[in-house]
Amino acid sequence: MSKPLLIGPFTQLLPMSGLPLKGALSDEQLPIIEKGGLVVYEGKILDIGIFEDLKSDDVEVHQLEGNHVCLPGFIDAHTHICFGGSRARDYAYRNSGKTYLEIAKAGGGIWDTVTQTRKASQEDLVEGIISRSVTHLKNGVTTIEVKSGYGLSVEEELKMLRAIKQADRKTLADLVPTCLAAHMKPKDWDGDKNYLEEIASKLFLQLKSEGLANRIDAFIEESAFSSQEIAPYFQKARELGFDITVHADQFTTGGSEVAIQFDAISADHLEASTEKEIQLLAKSDVIATALPGASLGLGCDFTPARKLLDAGGVLAIASDHNPGSAPMGDLLTQASILGTFEKLSNAEVLAGITFRASAALNLEDRGTLEVNKLADFVIFPTDNYQEITYHQGQLKPNAVWKNGKQIE
Predict the structure, then answer these.
(1) pLDDT at 123 over 70
(2) Fewer beta carbons below 10 Å: N end or C end of the chain?
(3) What is the pLDDT of residues 372-395, one digit of tens each?
(4) Structure confidence by residue, pLDDT tens digits, 169-205
(5) Which residues pair with 37 in a beta bridge?
(6) 173: Cβ–Cβ under 8 A, 6 or more apart, which residues?
(7) What are phi and psi for residue 275, nearest 5 degrees?
(8) CA–CA separation, 227 and 249 (whole Å)
(9) What three-state secondary structure class fits 185?
């Protein structure tokens, strides 16, 4: 039987433990272990502390040379990396001044990706997910939420979710599937039937029986589904034991109130949230997830992250990596830029992509470096953790560890 493995020494080891889930954070609150080390065994953290103190005949040593900063593996709690095709034309149209409606009339928008995703085989989708997951993993993202939502029929949504499940078995990153069949009403849907009723009655039980997803999402917006339309859909999801998350307040308000009403795990986007929504979210247990990639892709306002935190809310930060509004997909770059515009401390940015992001996925076994949690961590070649956000994603990890093993 192999011995536990001691990794270190780290110039700075930031476990991100012992910090509050809700509210503002200062950098002075960050726990920092200087000359720290981690002992890992069978995919989990066995011990953490001063490197020299952890040495013994009972452990093997993975000795590091030079300066290194260690953080928990990053968690991207909102992505759409299962898709077919490209929307580069949409991006060019937006930058030339065309409106969303004009782009849609020209054959762009979400429906363009739906069309291309339907044409793709399940194997094609698997390959795309794996490729994007590998990039995320190299950048330190060890857990990635992945949504469906470009199928918009029972069979096509199943194809996407089966592809996500298949890709999860083939990539070292953990993929967390979410069913977003309520992304928009499909253009080819028979108007005499209720699309949401069809999905809830035929798809939800299939998700349970095949173990394809335990999370249900919906886009509440004028261009998608209203608060009234989505209520029975979420009610059915809740009765069946699904976790609920919501695309909320992206262009107009209303979605965050639905998230609170249905005890959603998170409300994501929130660029249009006003003081009313900020206060409601802060008083609830719903996690506010900012998606700066969408703001950068669309050229719109950022989520009011500073106000949400100051009001006592929980702020997670995710990439929204998708082919339309957020094609960049670089979580650390986006989180760092959000920090600049919203005046977030390093502690708040790092919390948003570690333990607060794990809470947005209802995952208790990761997000901090503590005994018995997953040995998922990322190492940067620097002596000061402040350099990580200072370089806005351009300082890349020199090592990523997943389940106690270094990614090659």
Answers:
(1) yes
(2) N
(3) 999 999 999 999 999 999 999 999
(4) 999 999 999 999 999 999 999 866 799 999 999 999 9
(5) 49
(6) 133, 134, 136, 137, 141, 142, 143, 144, 402
(7) -60, -35
(8) 11
(9) coil
Structure tokens at 33: 């272990």
Residue type, 153: S
Structure tokens belonging to residue 18: 């012992």
The average pLDDT across 222-248 equals 97
**3-state secondary structure at position 161:** helix
pLDDT at 153: 96
Residue 138 pLDDT? 97
Domain boundaries, the chain: 5-73+368-406, 75-360
* Residues 6 and 61 sit within 8 Å (Cβ to Cβ): yes
What pLDDT is recorded for position 69? 98
Residues in the chain: 408
C-beta of residue 143 within 8 angstroms of C-beta of residue 363: yes
Mind listing the pLDDT tens digit for each residue in 296-313?
999 999 999 999 999 999
Cα–Cα distance for residue pair 60/207, rounded to 1 Å: 43
Task: Establish whether the linkage from the previous residue to 327 is cis, with ω within 30° of 0.
Answer: no
Which CATH architecture best describes the domain 75-360?
A: Alpha-Beta Barrel (3.20)
Where would I find the H helices in 107-226?
Answer: 110-119, 122-138, 154-170, 195-202, 204-210
Sign of the torsion formed by the C-alpha atoms of 353, 355, 361 and 365: positive
